[in-house]
UniProtKB/TrEMBL annotation:
GO terms for biological process: aspartate biosynthetic process. Homodimer. GO terms for molecular function: 2-aminobutanoate transaminase activity; L-aspartate:2-oxoglutarate aminotransferase activity; L-cysteine transaminase activity; pyridoxal phosphate binding. The keyword Transferase applies. NCBIfam families: PRK09257.1 (NF006719). Signal peptide: none annotated. The lineage of its organism: Eukaryota, Metazoa, Ecdysozoa, Arthropoda, Hexapoda. Residues 29-397 form the Aminotransferase class I/classII large domain. Coiled coil: none annotated. This is Aspartate aminotransferase.
Length: 403
């Protein structure tokens, strides 16, 4: 009898199952709108030219070695990453109240933040938006939270933010609950609060003594503008909040499989930060001991060298602009076809993902009849669109909606 006999099969992870089904589909016009990564106009993954260049420099640099990094990672990386998030002139940085910790991409940052808040700081309940990135729940329950709950976020009727519902749910949350907030380009809806709405959210968080945990997976990638995409986090810091922010460099550097992330911790005083860091050091030591160097060094090099930094900014602008142009292209075609419904949300939403508003039957119809793959929720990745397949996809959506 096997040592693991009697174990039930776990449920499939939808996004990976979808990619698998797409790969085995032999239809020539198939389209994958389900992937969680950037694709070029040729439907190919993109290694950023600046990343290739830095990797070549690194390969030639005989002074680099493969020694262990410290538990908290490469300081040149985490300092630059925290500065990129908070801004050069951040008062928290100037006061020594903010610090960065290198993590295993955004997921790793969430896990470390979760463990610290639940196990070290004794927080028991965490909230994320409904809907949210599907992994929040698993990461946070595994990190030690006793309860994972949701606050309302998406209003299907208006295909925009349900601010009233969100604020009501936050007001009803038990004190000291941790609230996950998407810093920009909300996944999966692509709907972000406006600056004024952020202000209202911040007021409730302060009033009810909740704790903000920002998830920043798309800084720069969302709008092409690093400052704009950091607006929410910076305004909370400016308002004097303590917070943590989990940064991913998967999308904005195209470094998905290198697992480059940073956990920024902002406290109210320099004194408490040292103890927090020593506890986080023990958490990481007990989880994976220390992070890998390669990707972090690539990012550190780009962020710390003025010329390479400019080259990288051109790259993120290229990605953001392509996504924005696909949004416009899809909306324009749906309107031209007279597809029933209002499609303004396609261009109002931001980032790689769009919540189309298509229902499960329509999603299935598109897959069965047109070999167009997307998540059951109707979320599509704009990068799956190209000038070559826009007409095909728009026509298919028009057919599905009119059916
Ligand atoms: N948070 C959100 C909202 C995301 O969309 C993602 C990537 N899909 C992540 C975190 C983490 O990604 P990674 O671990 O690859 O950095």
């Amino acid at each position: 009898m096997s040592f693991c006999a009697g174990i039930q099969a776990g449920p499939p992870i939808e996004v990976f199952a979808l990619t698998q089904a797409f790969t085995t589909d032999t239809f020539d016009k198939k389209v994958n709108l389900g992937v969680g990564a950037y694709r070029t106009e040729e439907s190919k993954p993109w290694v950023l030219p600046v990343v290739r260049k830095i990797e070549q420099l690194m390969a030639a640099d005989q002074s680099l070695n493969k020694e262990y990094l410290p538990v908290l990672g490469l300081a040149a990386f985490s300092q630059a990453a925290t500065k990129m998030l908070l801004g050069d002139d951040s008062p928290a940085l100037a006061d020594g109240r903010a610090v960065g910790i290198q993590t295993l991409s955004g997921t790793g940052a969430l896990r470390v933040a979760g463990e610290f808040l639940a196990r070290t700081c004794g927080r028991t309940t965490i909230y994320s938006s409904e809907p949210t990135w599907e992994n929040h729940r698993l990461v946070m329950l595994n990190a030690g939270f006793q309860e994972y709950k949701s606050y309302r976020y998406w209003d299907p009727a208006t295909r925009s933010l349900d601010l009233k519902g969100m604020l009501e749910d936050l007001r009803a949350a038990p004190e000291r609950s941790v609230i996950i907030l998407h810093a920009c380009a909300h996944n999966p809806t692509g709907v972000d609060p406006t600056p004024d709405q952020w202000k209202q959210i911040a007021e409730v968080i302060r009033e009810k003594n909740l704790f903000p945990l920002f998830d920043s997976a798309y800084q720069g990638f969302a709008s092409g503008d690093l400052d704009k995409d950091a607006f929410a986090v910076r305004s909370f810091v400016k308002d004097g909040f303590e917070l943590v922010c989990c940064q991913s460099f998967a999308k904005n550097f195209g470094l998905y499989n290198e697992r480059v992330g940073n956990l920024t911790v902002v406290t109210s005083s320099k004194e408490v930060l040292a103890n927090a860091l020593s506890q986080i050091t023990l958490l990481i030591r007990g989880m994976y001991s220390n992070p890998p160097q390669h990707g972090a060094r690539v990012v550190a090099t780009a962020l710390n060298d003025p010329t390479l930094y400019q080259e990288w900014r051109v790259c993120i602008k290229t990605m953001a602009d392509r996504i924005i142009s696909m949004r416009a292209g899809l909306k324009e075609r749906l309107i031209k076809l007279g597809t029933p419904g209002n499609w303004d949300h396609i261009t109002n939403q931001i980032g790689m993902f769009s919540y189309t508003g298509l229902n499960v039957e329509q999603v299935e119809y598109l897959r069965n009849e047109y070999h167009i793959y997307m998540l059951k929720s109707g979320r599509i990745n704009m990068c799956g669109l190209t000038n070559a397949n826009l007409d095909y996809v728009a026509g298919a959506i028009n057919d599905a909606v009119n059916k």
